[in-house]
Amino acid sequence: MRIAIVGAGAIGGWIGTKLAIAGHAVSVLARGATLAALENGPWRLEAGGETLEGKVRASGDVATLGVQDLVVVALKGPALPALAPAIARLIGPDTVVLPAMNGVPWWFLLGGSGELGPTALESVDPGNAVSAAIPFAQVIGCVVHASVLARGPGDVVHKAGNRLILGKPDGATTERLEQVVAAFVEAGFDVEQSASIQRDIWYKLWGNMTMNPISAITGATADRILDDPMVNAFILRVMAETKEVGGRIGCSIDESGEDRNFVTRKLGAFRTSMLQDAEGGRPMEVDQLLGAPREIAGKLGVAVPEMDTLLGLTRLFAQTRQLYPR
User: Fold this and answer.
1) pLDDT over 90 at 325, yes or no
2) In terms of Cα–Cα distance, which of 305, 65, 23 is closest to 186?
3) What CATH number belongs to 201-320?
4) CA-to-CA distance for 16 and 181, rounded, in angstroms?
5) In the chain, which residues fall in CATH 1.10.1040.10?
6) What is the dotted CATH code of the domain comprising 2-195?
7) Cα 93 versus chain centre, distance
8) Active site residues
9) pTM for this structure?
10) Average model confidence (pLDDT) across the chain
11) How confident is the model over 144-162, as pLDDT tens digits?
């Protein structure tokens, strides 16, 4: 397959290297030091004490890459609207677009779900720039369950987890979806094909939409956040609101917030991705984790005062540090 990776960070490097090693023609849209590293050497992935190398074609000019069979979008959410027109140039009538991103994606409700008909989300797709560039019918949803970090340009480290959940937004099984699933399985990923990818996205969001922003604001690791009884209680109230909203859009959750946080506690004293972004001076995914759920709640007429509080504090924190581009 001709595969383009847009977003040459940790997740993009993890996916791109393994697909390249599996024999696919992998191209990377990159810039700066990462572009220079990939032009002059392979993508390096450290996994299980072994260093893997994948030969890829890197370019800073999307016009040189051409139409692809698969486009993996591994960007941070705030970067997507500006890059969407460039991504469109990689897409032909048979191209599949797979966003491997955090939070609620732009396409989440474009086909309607539960009590809401087809709905655009301004919070993650301002002015419909993304949906205008990337055909909804060609999207495969993706949930990443893995811990990967970028050690340097073109050099990533896989820490834990190897699971990808893939599915069409309408739940259909298509030949192209099966081809993509097969490619990822052959590349060594643990792949689950989902008939309800929106529900899988919402479930992951339910677990990280509180831990991420609270860690960024406080600088605390996950264990310290959960050990504080007042903060823990606040988290559970946000999770209860999110669970109610999810039930109204076909993303019901049977688990309790306490049980979900017990799973998080098992992961120990980890630093969330949003905390790492805040400390690294990178734009924070405020809208993907909080703005979009809040917008969905508003469209349903569901009051979410605890979510409002967390969104307001997180947005203000990011704005004062110039990490919220809107």
Assistant:
1) no
2) 23
3) 1.10.1040.10
4) 15
5) 201-320
6) 3.40.50.720
7) 24
8) 204
9) 0.95
10) 96
11) 999 999 999 999 999 999 9
